[in-house]
């Protein structure tokens, strides 16, 4: 009889054997993930990053980060409530709030942590949470930590949200959605979601990570474009790490929400404050956005051109509503090979497979940025078409 090994009988070098078994299973399913470090300068055309306005290497932004490092140091030296709040953080929060037309803002060391904070602090065991089923992983993480009743409902479906709110068992409720969904770049029906949330006495939390800097007047984001940023029952999260080309995240909303986060949100209280360089970079990037309000329109024009040309080639392309579009691929391994051949042809594209795609359909994910020329887009379409696996066109 084979005795089940006790923990003592497993040699130390075999303790992690199960990881190899899981890696083999992922490889079998075409789900291996690899890091591909990039050089500081490359001839590769970037259709994978999130530097939508091309500000990460803008001299005004990078210069502000460098100057802040020399003035304030490389790290913020502590959590925000201890030594990690500098005048730079206060300036950034003030500028963000003013730009977006909200009462107050609170800066975090990442957008991921801002989302975890907003969801957990605005819910709890006494709350119901109703989410779109395609929300970002960081919001899902918040829901898991919240101890709330969580219902993930049909994608972009205000009626489904209304039904879940009407049948909830908890008095308090929070509706959670992305504004721009990360995989296909499609938009949430924010006006309708706000109306249905209000009808049922629920707050609305919108993750505007991909909308901020790209959508709305001068890049003020999707929530601002929907006229919801100043509403008393709406809270927005953003990242500083995409259109602003910096690093970090923020929650924007009513003053009493921000106060509540400062006093209760664990991913704010127990995390070292954003580095001064990132805070200064974000302030500088906001300054650029204010002086060059035409930048977001360039992003949307490139997305439209890229999507139109790829569709003409016969690919199944998502509608260009933001900086993100996706192209469906026949399989997960087909997607990986396609992305690798694009890289060999000089185009870096994203490759999204389960579990990053909730519907199980793998995709090439393409992002555009304000610096792309029409000829860059033409080159990208040629390389992507030539690299396509069999079955990628309809
Ligand atoms: C929709 C969405 N929300 C939140 C985040 C997290 O932001 P950050 O990268 O700043 O942690 C991301 C970025 O990956 C995102 O795509």
From TrEMBL:
Q: Which UniProt keywords apply?
A: Acyltransferase, Antibiotic biosynthesis, Biotin biosynthesis, Pyridoxal phosphate, Transferase
Q: Does the keyword Transferase apply?
A: yes
What catalytic activity is recorded?
A: 6-carboxyhexanoyl-[ACP] + L-alanine + H(+) = (8S)-8-amino-7-oxononanoate + holo-[ACP] + CO2
One Pfam family assigned to this protein is Aminotran_1_2
Q: SUPFAM superfamilies attached here?
A: PLP-dependent transferases (SSF53383)
Top-level lineage group: Bacteria
Q: In which pathway does it act?
A: Cofactor biosynthesis; biotin biosynthesis
| EC number, UniProt record | 2.3.1.47
The keyword Thylakoid appears for this protein:
no
Q: InterPro entries from the entry?
A: Aminotrans_II_pyridoxalP_BS, Aminotransferase_I/II_large, AON_synthase_class-II, PyrdxlP-dep_Trfase, PyrdxlP-dep_Trfase_major, PyrdxlP-dep_Trfase_small
Residue ranges constituting the Aminotransferase class I/classII large domain according to the UniProt record: 45-384
Top-rank EC class of the record's enzyme: transferase
> What cofactor does its activity depend on?
pyridoxal 5'-phosphate
State the family named in the UniProt similarity comment for this chain. Answer: Belongs to the class-II pyridoxal-phosphate-dependent aminotransferase family. BioF subfamily.
Describe its partners and assembly state.
Answer: Homodimer.
Name of the molecule in the record: 8-amino-7-oxononanoate synthase
